[in-house]
Amino acid sequence: MEKDILIQEINRLRKEKNAVILAHYYQEKDIQDIADFVGDSLELSKKAAATSADMIVFAGVHFMAETAKILNPEKTVVLPDLNAGCSLADGCKAEDFIKWKAQYPGHKVVTYINCSADIKTLSDVVCTSSNAKKIIESFPQDQPILFAPDRNLGKYLQNETNRDLVLWDGSCIVHEAFSLDKLIALYKEYPKAKIVAHPESETQILKVAHYIGSTSGMLNYIVSSDAEIFIVATEAGILHKLAQDAPGKTLIPAPAYEDNTCACSECAFMKLNTLEKLYRCMKYGYPEIKVSEETRLKALVPIQRMLELS
Ligand code: 13P
Ligand code: SF4
């Protein structure tokens, strides 16, 4: 189907089905442009919690749509491509997590929202990159804490909060692919540039960053900064919104290792969603996200704790 017809049809279905389209910044630009709201993981969860729509079309990855379903059991939540996973969520299986957790009695469990509903049921509180520091600091300084599944975000939080967190060994395939040598070479070409990085990036990248934050945090920093040139160490999809919100600024994607399976800084999972698939999932109400009521009720507790603390 032609793009303009697809957009017309999506708009028609949006009214007919009383649907809201929520998109993450890492979605392709056509999807961002037709979305009702584009945001970071925390903002998207808040929008999902507050919506009065009957259908939530989640243009993001599975754990995001699943979180929306946990918050809205009575609504239809659809994801354009059910295979849109996440290396962090996929690398943290409940059976392994249960064994890991059992080794650390007396520890509270803080999990990054990039994990499955099953992992959330085993957590005390969920966090996103924009509220993780606040969530960790909500516990007494001497409270032992397990943090999963992102070890890079965990190391960053250890440093920021001056706490010795026990870390699960997971990572994001996109953010671990940035090359420090290439980044330094690029910075030498643009010495006036500010380097902005997502905390899922490795410690060596974060050490040279001028600003570290969630996708919305990076966007706000760039829009409000007096600097003109930015090297952006996160998934390249955010450059679309950045170009719209910070016109005239020079935005350079941080370079990735050439020999990495992900030689560009694109998330293959996020990019599985297309405008065509989005139209189809609205039309057929499929693929639909389902969560058993038992799992949902348990997973809801740490998500609600996060929303209360945010
Ligand atoms: P935020 O948008 O919360 O910064 O998360 C980035 C990410 O990797 C989502 O998968
Ligand atoms: Fe997961 Fe990384 Fe893709 Fe985000 S960018 S969905 S953390 S693999």
CATH architecture of the largest domain: 3-Layer(aba) Sandwich
Q: Helical amount among residues, as a percent range?
A: 40-55%
Tally of contiguous helical segments: 15
Span between termini: 42 Å
Stated plainly, the CATH topology of the largest domain is called Rossmann fold
Task: Count the beta strands.
Answer: 12
Proportion of strand residues: 5-15%
List bound small molecules: 1,3-dihydroxyacetonephosphate, iron/sulfur cluster
Shape: globular
Mean pLDDT: 96
Structural class: alpha/beta
Any idea what the radius of gyration is? 19 Å
Enzyme class: transferase
Protein name: Quinolinate synthase
Cofactor: [4Fe-4S] cluster
EC number: 2.5.1.72
Would you mind describing this structure in some detail?
Helices cover 44% and strands 15% of the residues. The chain is α/β, with parallel strands linked by helices. It has 3 domains: 3-84 and 270-290, Rossmann fold; 88-172 and 299-309, Rossmann fold; 175-253, NadA-like (Rossmann fold). It has a 4-stranded parallel β-sheet with strand order 2-1-3-4, sandwiched between helices. The protein starts with a helix and ends with a helix. The mean pLDDT is 96. The protein binds 1,3-dihydroxyacetonephosphate and iron/sulfur cluster. The site of iron/sulfur cluster has 14 residues, from helix 5.
What is this structure's SSE topology?
Elements: H1 3-16, E1 19-24, H2 29-34, E2 37-39, H3 41-50, E3 55-59, H4 62-71, E4 76-78, H5 87-90, H6 94-102, E5 108-112, H7 117-121, E6 125-127, H8 132-137, E7 145-148, H9 151-161, E8 166-167, H10 180-189, E9 194-197, H11 203-207, E10 211-212, H12 215-224, E11 229-233, H13 238-245, E12 250-253, H14 275-284, H15 293-309
Helix pairs in contact: 1-14, 3-4, 4-15, 12-13
This protein binds 1,3-dihydroxyacetonephosphate (13P) and iron/sulfur cluster.
